[in-house]
Each structure stands twice: as C-alpha cells, then as structure tokens.
C-alpha cells in the first residue's frame, strides 16, 4: 500500500517538475510552433498544443501497460501521471480556459492562486517573456492578491 502511494506521488511530482521544464525550455523553445496555438485565441475545440497532452497520456498508458502484470512501480507511476493529467485537465482546461463549460470560477484560495499564476502565464502571446510555467507549484505572490 505504501509502495503504491509512494510511486503514485513520484509520478505526480515528476509530471509537475518535468512539465515545468518542458514547458519553459521546449514548448517555449524549439517546439514553440506547436505550443503557440495555446497562446493564441482559440478557433476550434482542439489546438495543436493538445499533442503534448496526448504524448504525456501515452507515456502513462505505456507505464500502466508495462507494469500491470506485476503491479510494480511502473504501474503506480502511470497511475500518478494519469491522476496528474486528469487534475491538470480539470484545472487548466476546464476551470482556467473554460474549454468545457462546467464549474464556476474557483473560490478556494489554492485554486485561485493557480488561476492567477496561469493567467499571468497567458498575459503574453510571445515565446520569450512568459512567466510561471508549472501548474500546481504556485509562487507565493499569487496567494497574496486579494480576490475581487
Ligand atoms: Zn506556455
Ligand atoms: Zn493555458
């Protein structure tokens, strides 16, 4: 049981850390042409940037597939990554970008700070001057602003 929880957390944390790194140095770097579709006004339901979600999703599915026989660390890391993906979708795609019209604007302090930090990320449509690339790890200053 502890084993499972440990590797679920490892998968989850690894996603936030590698996600931050990939977002900052790759998506706002060599793969900007794909990611920029997320920084431009969206015309359809899908954007080219969704390829990244597909990629992370595939990694999770692969890990679960490889580890399901033994229920080993790969399986539980896959579960952690999936959990991250689902939470990311609900917070980033539903709550912040309203791709699905569900839930109101959050009132919870932590959710609100995520909200503000990610809006700050979208304050620019350019490759180079963006801030706050993670999702769950929020700089303290976004907690301090009084909610309107
Ligand atoms: Zn970005
Ligand atoms: Zn966004």
TrEMBL record:
<dbReference type="InterPro" id="IPR045019">
    <property type="entry name" value="BETA-OHASE-like"/>
</dbReference>
<protein>
    <submittedName>
        <fullName>Beta-carotene 3-hydroxylase</fullName>
    </submittedName>
</protein>
<dbReference type="InterPro" id="IPR006694">
    <property type="entry name" value="Fatty_acid_hydroxylase"/>
</dbReference>
<comment type="similarity">
    <text>Belongs to the sterol desaturase family.</text>
</comment>
<dbReference type="GO" id="GO:0010291">
    <property type="term" value="F:beta-carotene 3-hydroxylase activity"/>
</dbReference>
<dbReference type="GO" id="GO:0005506">
    <property type="term" value="F:iron ion binding"/>
</dbReference>
<feature type="transmembrane region" description="Helical">
    <location>
        <begin position="75"/>
        <end position="96"/>
    </location>
</feature>
<dbReference type="GO" id="GO:0016123">
    <property type="term" value="P:xanthophyll biosynthetic process"/>
</dbReference>
<feature type="transmembrane region" description="Helical">
    <location>
        <begin position="6"/>
        <end position="27"/>
    </location>
</feature>
<dbReference type="GO" id="GO:0016119">
    <property type="term" value="P:carotene metabolic process"/>
</dbReference>
<keyword id="KW-0560">Oxidoreductase</keyword>
<keyword id="KW-0125">Carotenoid biosynthesis</keyword>
<dbReference type="Pfam" id="PF04116">
    <property type="entry name" value="FA_hydroxylase"/>
</dbReference>
<feature type="transmembrane region" description="Helical">
    <location>
        <begin position="48"/>
        <end position="69"/>
    </location>
</feature>
<keyword id="KW-0812">Transmembrane</keyword>
<keyword id="KW-0472">Membrane</keyword>
<keyword id="KW-1133">Transmembrane helix</keyword>
<feature type="domain" description="Fatty acid hydroxylase">
    <location>
        <begin position="9"/>
        <end position="135"/>
    </location>
</feature>
């Amino acid at each position: 049981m502890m084993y499972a929880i440990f590797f679920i957390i490892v998968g989850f944390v690894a996603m936030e850390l590698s996600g931050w790194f990939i977002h900052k140095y790759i998506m706002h770097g060599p793969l900007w042409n794909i990611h920029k579709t997320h920084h431009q006004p969206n015309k359809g339901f899908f954007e080219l940037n969704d390829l990244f979600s597909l990629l992370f999703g595939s990694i999770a599915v692969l890990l679960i597939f490889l580890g399901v026989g033994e229920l080993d660390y790969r399986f539980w890391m896959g579960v952690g990554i999936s959990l991250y993906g689902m939470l990311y979708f609900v917070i980033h795609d539903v709550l912040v970008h309203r791709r699905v019209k569900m839930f109101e604007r959050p009132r919870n302090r932590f959710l609100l700070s995520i909200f503000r930090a990610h809006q700050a990320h979208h304050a620019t449509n350019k490759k180079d001057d963006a801030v706050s690339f993670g999702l769950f790890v929020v700089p303290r200053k976004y907690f301090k602003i009084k909610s309107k």
